[in-house]
Design a protein that fits this description.
This protein is of the alpha/beta class. The protein is 43% helix and 14% strand. It has two domains: 22-108, Double Stranded RNA Binding Domain; 126-206, Arc Repressor Mutant, subunit A (Orthogonal Bundle). It has a four-stranded mixed beta sheet with strand order 3-2-1-4, sandwiched between helices. A two-stranded parallel ribbon has the order 5-6. The N and C termini lie far apart (55 Å).
């Protein structure tokens, strides 16, 4: 790009919104979210949450928490996927996820060892869902191997399928797939990345 091109692009680029405009936009989003809730037009609410693992994207339906996305995931792609797989009526509505955010804050602070918020597992079907339903029984600060978890589902040979179910878990942390490790004790893969998995295991081990 030439210097002239750069100058022209700078002149044509829209000005960044100032603090007052940003605040007005935030207020407008809040009004729209409240109206959508009041008129029963909101199927998927979402918000961000800053955590020791970075900024998480949280999404919920009226049935419960439906998605937790890590910083390594593309947030826009996650929202597009929710619009395709759940409902196109997706809106930022932080208040709908206040309880989820509070429980996650408590978890990262070491004050919560189990989650009470309802979970919507509609994004996991068939065997994958059966695996996730067994995962919630793995206690805080304990681990199981992929092979053990396969056996608990009644399909002891489905170790690879269990690994896939954990890797595609739509609600990690709350459904604790980070507590599933390899038979040799090494952490294995994780949707949030191997470092995130190691940090979660260390957090629980230190409690």
């Amino acid at each position: 790009m030439t210097e002239m091109d750069e100058t022209l692009q700078a002149r044509l680029a829209p000005a960044a919104p100032d603090a007052e405009e940003a605040a007005a936009l935030t207020r407008l989003q809040a009004v729209l979210a409240r109206r959508a809730v009041d008129e029963d037009l909101l199927d998927v609410a979402y918000r961000d949450l800053d955590t020791p693992l970075g900024r998480l994207l949280l999404a919920a339906t009226p049935a419960g928490l439906v998605r937790v996305a890590f910083p390594v995931e593309d947030a826009d792609a996650v929202l597009d996927s929710l619009a395709d797989q759940v409902s196109p009526r997706v809106l930022r509505a932080p208040g709908r996820l206040d309880e989820v955010a509070r429980e996650l804050d408590e978890y990262f602070a070491g004050r919560r060892h189990a989650f009470d918020v309802p979970v919507d597992l509609q994004l996991a079907r068939g065997f994958r869902r059966a695996v996730l339903e067994k995962l919630v029984d793995v206690p805080y600060a304990r681990t199981v191997s992929y092979a053990e978890l396969a056996a608990r589902t009644g399909s002891p040979r489905a170790v690879r399928a269990v690994g896939t179910a954990c890797a595609l878990n739509p609600v990690p942390l709350v459904v604790p797939c980070h507590r599933v490790v390899r038979s040799d004790g090494t952490p294995g893969s994780y949707r949030g990345g191997p470092d995130a998995k190691r940090r979660l295991l260390a957090l629980e081990a230190a409690a």
